[in-house]
Amino acid sequence: MSIKKIGFIGTGIMGAAMAGHLLAAGFEVSVYNRTKAKAEGLIEKGARWCGSPGECARGQDAVITIVGYPKDVEEVYLGKDGILSSAGEGAYVIDMTTSSPILAERIFTAAKQKGIHAVDAPVTGGDVGAKNATLSILVGGEESSFEALKPVFSAMGKNLVYMGSAGAGQKAKACNQIAIAGALAGACEAYAYAQASGLDLEKTFQAISAGAAGSFQMSNVVHRGLDGDFEPGFMLKHFGKDLAIGTETSAAYGAALPVLGQVLSEVRQMERQGKGDKGTQALLWYYGLDK
């Protein structure tokens, strides 16, 4: 089946840019978001507004979701007037939220019973990757679905990786976030040490970011905080959600992840202090950096 009509649910920081690329690539895009104002830019570009997830799913060749939390994913797929009760047989449903691999498996099974092809396809690359259509897209589900959806994925990302059966994309994204947790906290700790020992923070960045200690987190996230920019490319509260998925499922899989647990504790403390809507660079505040 040639995919031409796409329903897109969730037009926040990531979703708005991703849906915009689909419009630019020539797909017919319908959109739904709980806050319509966040979809206005897409509507002005030619997207059709829908009043519910079900309306956004009806009559589409494919439906994409990128929403907040696993509970939101469950609601839009399995709830009343949801995607699976509205999408037609043969449609593809693609959850690009970072969510639970266990929930992804449930959705896959429920979709298959209705003749719908479900994949989990979380993304990495943040707001910059979404804006530049350079996201990495990690896909779980049937490989035939991955192949059929390549033109859709290619409009939004560059690194398209088929990870395996349902839930495998979400497991891979958990690996990504687990790795980021250590890198982010490590960079924050480095600058906490630099500040405490009297070093100039910008000179420290110049000294260590280009060598073996360098990382995306140091150069593109933490450095923004050092410059006083704490606006979100990726919200701290959503990062906390991702880390919680890793800790919860790691126990089920029998993996001990002490660094992940520590960073999640730090993030939760910042959330309790009202910093959840700031970018992940706000973790600098946990370590007392106040520049």
Structural write-up:
The chain is an alpha/beta fold and 291 residues long. The model has no long low-confidence stretch (mean pLDDT 96). It has 2 domains: 5-166, NAD(P)-binding Rossmann-like Domain (Rossmann fold); 172-286, N-(1-d-carboxylethyl)-l-norvaline Dehydrogenase, domain 2, CATH 1.10.1040.10. Helix 5 (101-113) links the parallel strand 5 and strand 6. A 6-stranded parallel β-sheet has the order 3-2-1-4-5-6. It has a 3-stranded mixed β-sheet with strand order 7-8-9. The longest helix has 29 residues, at 168-196. The chain has helices at 13-24, 40-44, 53-57, 70-78, 101-113, 126-132, 143-148, 150-154, 168-196, 201-208, 216-226, 236-253, 258-272, 283-286, and strands at 5-9, 28-32, 48-49, 62-65, 92-95, 117-120, 123-124, 135-140, 157-164. It contains 14 helices and 9 strands.
